[in-house]
Amino acid sequence: MSVRPYSMAPCEILELLEAGYQKLADSDSKSLLKKHLTKPIFDKLKTKVTPSYCSTLLDCIQSGLCNLDSNVGIYAPDPEAYQTFAEIFDPIINDYHKGFGKGAKHPASCFGYGADFPDLDPEQKFILSTRVRCGRSIQDFPFNPCLSEDDYRKLECMITNVLSTLCNEHAGKYYPLVGMEKDVQQKLIDKHYLFKEGDRFLQAANASRFWPTGRGIFINRARTFLVWVNEEDHIRIISMERGGDLGRVYERMIIGLESLAHSLKFSSDSRLGNLTFCPTNLGTTIRASVHIKLPHLGKDRAKLEEMAKKHNLQVRGTSGEHTEAKDGVYDISNSRRMGLTEYQAVGEMHKGISALIEAECKECCKK
Ligand code: ADP
Ligand code: MG
């Protein structure tokens, strides 16, 4: 529970907020925070705190104030923040997920069948690997900025106890970050299994406190099923493999998630769906991505992004968010995760990636 028992933001927080807001307003930041945090909304929210954890507006927006190059710039320090600060979260959610207005309600979960998503690249000409992940938060725990060191240990213990019961293809081993050799950690990061360290967007959001306590990765024997513990969310469930068999990758993630859901209670909201630290991940929390080479379309990243946007896809660099593309390898995934089912989110990605591959083939024929 809170170590800051106040019912409104104290003076020192207000001063930091006022200075930060001015800096943001004077900047040419392209963030959704800058776009939607108008002065009247700022003035209305600046003194508020969440009921259980006393999180302030500063706790929500400090990453965006500090990193003016943020795409979004806001995180929920605890699940109540989505209500207390709804006047800023709602327009950002609506903008990011392309239509989730005030009256919208996230639909009931529906995963459907992976078999409906055939291999995107059966000849293995474009796609190096496919990955589908989702995030979950454990009920009765706040998000990163409000977790104590002991909370991190408790969460890790709860989650790894359940991971140790996974069987068949999903059975594996948990590797805590505490005590992990640096070269082992770097190899896991370079192979795209493990989250990176020192993300400045997460650090500024107060999401990296007590690092590496409570953080780690679970890996199955075939290295196709991974679970991240206490990175950005309490849990990230990941399925990945070489090639473009999206259906198979998706099915593996669903089975892993269902196995964990038998023993863990996840946080959700009747309107927003599954609750996560970042508003871009709410709802289905699904990000289905490919590592793909598109030599013609990829010549001009801006043009590729424009084309991807038309299919509700997002382009990231080879090592994920906020990284550059190396050797022409892009990470392309669905961008919307809310207001549609899991099946629809993955379907949107499948359709969009197929369209990009078709456009690449057409460009190739022109030459
Ligand atoms: P997330 O949204 O899951 O946090 P990030 O952008 O932070 O994703 O990237 C996490 C890691 O996942 C990075 O190492 C990134 O390269 C890797 N990754 C993402 N998609 C793929 C993919 N299709 N194949 C291989 N690695 C991937
Ligand atoms: Mg990430």
Automatic annotation (TrEMBL):
It comes from the Eukaryota. Residues 13-98 form the Phosphagen kinase N-terminal domain. GO terms for molecular function: arginine kinase activity; ATP binding; creatine kinase activity. GO terms for biological process: phosphocreatine biosynthetic process. Residues 126-363 form the Phosphagen kinase C-terminal domain. One of its GO terms (cellular component) is extracellular space. ATP binds at residues 129-133, 192, 236, 287-291, 316-321. Its EC number is 2.7.3.3. Keywords: ATP-binding, Kinase, Nucleotide-binding, Transferase. Pfam families: ATP-gua_Ptrans, ATP-gua_PtransN. Belongs to the ATP:guanido phosphotransferase family. PANTHER family: ARGININE KINASE 1-RELATED, ARGININE OR CREATINE KINASE. This is arginine kinase. It comes from Drosophila navojoa.
